[in-house]
Amino acid sequence: MVRIKTIDNTVVPYMSAINLKFKIEKKWFSNQFFVTLNSWNAQYHAILGYDFLQRNKVVIDTVNKQLLVGNQKFDFEENSPTNVCSETTDCDISESDKNKKESFEQINNNFGEKFNVSEETFHALNVKIANNITVQPFSTEIINLKVPKNISKNKDLIFIPKKNKLGYLINESLNVPTNANLFHTIIENNTNKVIHVRKNTIMGKLSTFDVNDIMSPSESEIYQINNLNLNEIHKMRRDELLKSDFKLDHLNDKDKKDMQDLLLKNYKVFSKSYKTLGETSAVIPEFSLLHNFPLQTKPYSIPLMAKKYAQQEINNLLEAGIIEPSSSSYCFPVIFIKKKQNPNDSNSEPKFRMVVDYRLLNSITETFKICLPKISEIIKNIAGRKIYCVLDLKSAFFQIKLRDEDKRKLAFCTEMGNFQPTRLPFGSKNSTSYFHTLISKCLNGITGKNVQFFLDDIIIAADSLCELKVTLQAVFDRLTKFNLTLDPSKLQLCKPEITYLGFDLNANGFSPSEQNVNKVTNFPRPKNLKQVRMFLGMLNYFRGLIYDYAGIVEPLVKLTKKNTPFVWSVECENAFNTVQEIILKKPTLKNFDPNLPISLITDASKIAICGILLQKKDNVYYPLEFFSRKLTPAECKYPSIRRELLAIYASVKHFHDQLLGENFELLTDAKPLTEYQSLDKKPEIVARWLLYLGTFSFTPTHIPGSLNPADFLSRVVEENSLNVNNITLFQPNDKLSMQNISIEQKQDAILSKIMNDLSVNKQCKQYFLDVNSGLLMIKNAHKNKKKIVNRIVIPKSLIKVCIETAHAPHFGVRKTFEFIRHKYQWKGMYLDTKNFCEHCEKCLENKPKAKLTQTQMIPKRNLAPGQCIAIDVVGKLPRSTDNKNFILTIIDHYSRYLEAYPLQNITSRTIINCLNKYFANFGLPKFLITDNATNFISNETVEFLDRLNIQHRKSSIYYPMANGLLERAHRTMKESLASMCENTFQWSEKLLFFKLYYNNSIHSVTKFAPAEIFFGRKQNLPLDSFFEPVTVENESKYLKNIRNNMCSIRNEFAKNEEQYFKNNAPHIKGRKVPNFNLGDKVFVKNFSHPHVFQEKYKGPFEIIKILRNNNYVIKSLKDNKTMKLNESKIFKQEQPRPNLRN
């Protein structure tokens, strides 16, 4: 039973109903109309109700006076009643001659448009009233109109009323004439005056009408929204889904095809638009309010840049039936939040997320409580598998239908009008709870080791592709059953490593994601209590990955106590740095394996207790999870043995799920606890702990205190960790392979012509074809012109690739050019290399401009390679991924061969350990040069060098040029690492790459590569990876060639060094060389940073000893202290002029 209600809720009775097709402007609609007994205003042909507005998603824009239907706009028509004239219109009401002459052109023009009838069909004649009529104010009367004699009586008649000045209204009508050649219609008087109409007054026009002459709309023209059935929606999903929607390029061709077939077969679970979005009523949300008083708020203004998106989003949601126009007394504002823009697509239009601000409604909504799963449990269950997939539901909440009575409560307002959702909206209270309930119901029975979910993200894991496909099909079947759909653009498929809920999951276990690591390590030092709480809240997410977390952060936790002043102490700084270093290492925990033995190691301190759950595989312990908590003030007063027992009790209780029913090994450094059953049961709390521990089966084992958990775990990480980035550190460029160069040479127009000429035995200068590889080669004299070198001719298409590969360590023009011309050649090679290097953005960003120096140049004349080395420390540097902050550099003074070791600290013991590694590889030197740093001149270091009979030479203080070879290498190293590292913490990885290139680049002084002088040969670079290996046919001949080559290198080396200093002598021309003698009174530069009014020099001092290389030993005339300085740091007071001596 249908009830028609007016705006004041009055029920209107009706006589009958009919479905009609009608048109607004050029758009056809279909709707049900009702014939009522009420006296409606005759100026309206029909009244469209709320059912029409709701079904067709009509938005009434009162500001612009438009109706918005989908993407179409219809302007309001503000016409006067159809047959009432304005004051300026000439209308008659009698049969006067003037009336007879009056034209009905306006009626004729409007008739065809109103009824959609062709001009040939309509031929109108005047219609007169049959008798006098009087119509009282605000009333209606039935009148009789005469049918003209020349009109066929067997056809239906169309009557169009004439405009009048009296103010009465008569509607258009479709009529059937009576036997008396009359037809009836209604006249309506809406004025406050009596209207008299005389007999034979022309009331309008009349014409015959044939139903077949109406131009009816086609079905496709009728505007009806969201009336698709499920089969039609499935067809739309299949049609819009493409193979390219799935990112599977990392798979081989066979696996990629198998996976694409599986996904396309299950097209029913994928949706790319709102129109094909899934819809389910498996879970029906209920929004129960604390009271029924309507809540309303004003709409928020929409930013200009978001208005276009807002209009499009509203239209899309209307068209899909996800929202509908609303007249609800509830109303909440909408916010448009800008989404993150893809950094690779900076030119794309900004996108926004539409969110309704339901905070006011949420405050009066009753809570629907559920328990969300613990993220840590999800990660533990799913980690440690070989293949992963993550499925993301498309507009997840919009797939749940709402009850009709709840739609009005969730209405929202925008500048485009008021709307209400038909599906569950985001942002409303309990939306998350209902959605989690739905997914739990959908995946019930298949979640476990292979399937887990958290809200709209479903993760699937497997150890093989076959197992993965079976699990995927099971999930797809469930989603199809519940008519839920996924977003194909957000799927992550068949990945060996995946980021899920802030963790990186792979076959090794789980660790913090790179994004979260950066958040923790880049967090600035807290400056107030709020920032400390933010930092601790961020860390709490990963506390299960950090050994003794509670003990480490205890100084920071103290700051959060009530009435504690904020003082950032040294302990706070150490805790802050320590926890950042631990997270930077990305600690990885293994997944629990029920087939492996379990161990639990515990420890206690005066402030915290901790425990580590371990499993042993191949005689190696792997951590599964860490537990720690801070001791209460009362627990801190426990004796040591009771705190250790508390650590065991609390750890066993924390790992209850994994340990109950298992026989595990308990490791503790408290030896009395190995006989815990014989402990004194007092106080009572100890008895309770022992009673609880008695329900578990374990074997206590004592471990020495030296094998504390921190040391134990650090060894496990160092022995088994592998940095993935180092695997491809030296990978050569495949474009420079022999096969690819051969192909590119043949495609190069110039080189292909030369190759064709050579193939027909034509002479082409120095070019020739290599017999083995078929490559085009060129003969050139070596730089010493004593031998001929064959080089590969690089085609134009590979020039950039060749230079990029040689310029990988970002060295200068000369070294990059030497790398290339060792094996390759093309015309203009040096200019191309120079142009590339001088315009390299990384080099421009990280290399300083060259400076003219005026330092006196001192030649190096050392015995042989390995006889004299210099060492120094670079840092403190940004903490690297392997927790290193410094670099120990060692350079051989003769060959300039450089070795560098990343270090965590620079204590004397660490320096000695590195020197031992160097000596084991390259032998003991005779001399070792250092600066005056405390770790180099400590008693431990001096004794170490004395035992090895190594002469320790210390450079002058505050004069780094005394160790110039190493300082210059430092500059090159810093520039190269800065250019190669995308992130600062990668420098430790790139250091290996730098050393290889540096030691094999031509030195500007010796004109030889350091490795060539040091080893007698060059080392292979990535540029050389595609060449054939060097073979030795005759050992004696090979050794003789090496000896001759070494002699030749040393002779040329000496000449090149001498020539270099000779050529660069003009750079120091004009420099004033100081002349110091024994006993001279001098002043020394103040090496501290003086204030404005402090002295810049200190003195006087007396020169008591003259050393080599312009160094002097001076003695203070005030306190007799001595120091060694270079001439550049001292100056001599000039002798007074003769007239001032007295």
Automatic annotation (TrEMBL):
Record-annotated Integrase catalytic domain positions: 861-1018
UniProt cross-references to InterPro entries, sorted A to Z: DNA/RNA_pol_sf, Integrase_cat-core, Integrase_H2C2, Peptidase_aspartic_dom_sf, Retrovirus_Pol_polyprotein, Rev_trsase/Diguanyl_cyclase, RNaseH-like_sf, RNaseH_sf
Keyword match Hydrolase: yes
GO MF, one example: endonuclease activity
Lineage, opening ranks: Eukaryota, Metazoa, Ecdysozoa, Arthropoda, Chelicerata
Protein name: RNA-directed DNA polymerase
Species of provenance: Araneus ventricosus (Orbweaver spider)
Keyword annotations from UniProtKB, A to Z: Endonuclease, Hydrolase, Multifunctional enzyme, Nuclease, Nucleotidyltransferase, RNA-directed DNA polymerase, Transferase
Enzyme Commission number(s): 2.7.7.49
Annotated Pfam families: Integrase_H2C2, RT_RNaseH_2, rve, RVT_1
UniProt entry tagged with the keyword Transferase: yes
GO cellular component, one term: DNA polymerase complex
